[in-house]
Here is the input.
Amino acid sequence: MNNSSTGSISGAVTKNDETPLEDATLAAFDGTVEVASTSSKSDGSYAILGLPAGTYDVTASHSGFTSSTKKDVNVVVGNDTGGTDFSLTPPP
Here is the structure.
């Protein structure tokens, strides 16, 4: 982390068969306001960096899959909230 007054959220995005999902969009929201976003890498990993301390809802989305949201993800200054993982499924 470049700034000691921020934290981050990281994890992985997979398909429902547990294979990595590249180029999923991950967005952190404070209420209804998008604070930051990123995309997952080829191995499904992602990190949303530079987040002020607080509680966020994190949404993962990808074309052809149903979006998923993790609510109340806590970010602490100087720490990474790792293990915020998503498994996306195709729509019914």
Notes: The first strand starts at residue 6 and ends at 15. The chain has no helices and eight strands.
